[in-house]
Specification:
The protein has one domain. The chain has 5 helices and no strands. The N and C termini lie far apart (about 80 Å). It is mostly helical and about 160 residues long. Helix 1 runs antiparallel to helix 3 (about 65-105). Helix content is about 85%, strand content about 0%. Its main location: membrane.
């Protein structure tokens, strides 16, 4: 009786994981372009702001650039970081759930339940949510340092062009 209820719960869990996988998959396909645009626009806003800072005199920085431009770039940065961290948290949550299934296998003596836990763990690993930017790269916590290094590289290039002029 209890074993049947547990097996039913395993099936419900698999169904929920499958539904979540398809939700993540369709979210990726629908919003992949928007995610790409957010990252690209934030990147370009950074470059524009740094170019403005480099090209203006030190006394004119406060009036030329304006607080609105810097605030706009800051808001885009915060949105990008929040999005990347949310995607990372969803991916790591699935990994934690799969690890929990593996740890529970050691505590359970019933071979049928152990087998179901193995299947559930493999099922979770296969259908783990992964956000991608238009299929090019995964969006997770590792995206943030890559983004920062790309901005830094292009800022250095901008500085070198301004020095040569």
């Amino acid at each position: 009786m209890i074993k049947d209820a547990i097996l039913d719960e395993f099936e419900c869990a698999k169904e929920i994981i499958r539904d979540n996988f398809f939700a993540w998959k369709y979210t990726n396909s629908i919003f992949g372009v928007w995610i790409w645009n957010l990252l690209a626009f934030t990147f370009l806003a950074y470059l524009k702001d740094f170019e403005n800072i480099i090209s203006t005199e030190a006394t004119d920085i406060a009036t030329e650039i304006g607080v609105q431009t810097v605030l706009h770039t800051f808001v885009l940065t915060i949105l990008t970081i929040i999005f990347a961290m949310s995607c990372d948290k969803a991916e790591k949550g699935a990994i934690r759930l799969a690890k929990l299934c593996n740890m529970l296998q050691a505590d359970i003596t019933d071979p049928i339940l152990v087998e179901e836990l193995k299947h559930l763990s493999n099922f979770i690993k296969e259908l783990r949510p992964r956000f991608t930017v238009y299929g090019f790269f995964n969006v997770n916590q590792q995206t943030i340092p890559v983004f920062i290094s790309a901005v830094t590289t292009y800022v250095i290039i901008l500085i070198q062009f301004k020095i040569n002029k």
